[in-house]
Give the backbone structure.
Amino acid sequence: MLTQRQRKQLKQLNSRHGRKKSDCFLAEGLRCCREAVRLQPTWIELVLCSQDFCRSQDGQEFLAQLSARGLSWQQLPEAEFKSLAETGHPQGVLCLLHRPDPPAPVLPKPFCLLLDQVREPGNLGTILRTAWAIGLPAVWLVSGGADPYSAKVVRAGMGAQFALQLPVFADLPAAVAEFRRLGGGEVWCTLPGTGCSLFEEEFQLHNCALVIGNEGEGISHPELGRPVTIPMPGKAESLNAAQAATVFLFEAVRRGMLK
């Protein structure tokens, strides 16, 4: 049975205002919960599983993973589990986790990815997942974007939040100042239609920062860095923020910066 405190915690996370006040967050779905158990088991406060999930092969394997980590779970009737899940068609498992404090920033290697108020949860989660996929240890965030620990961002990130360091800065000038204080080099601001092409040798990322801007307003202070762009022979004005970030990040992979 869920305790009154646990029910209150889960209910609080159903609203944006409640999430801001809470020191917890939710990971929903088998893949996200697996990554939470594998990478950050000490963050987990509660694991809930539906009856059908517990009887499935995936469920049996996941419960064995929990047992191996010394973690317990609670089985709930289908209707009760669905009332607690955020998605319309839940997979039958969710974790309540302690939200970590933002870490002290260190200079990321081989370069710093800096997100300037990326506000669409799907975009933020996708960028975090891509950064994790190429092997970056951290992503720097500017306050004012989507919450990296909101349920939608966690689902889109597919567990990236459990692997990445996510320091948060008050604004872009503060982030750039800290990057330079730590010994960082050039700051590159991604802008549509201006600056050098990311495919040119002039664009070098080693020990540099790459800034991805807000979906609607772009980079808040483009004067803080040098412009770099993705060539677009067609007539589209710009790319989606997550798409643009993916192009830049895999250009770094193509150049052999990440092994």
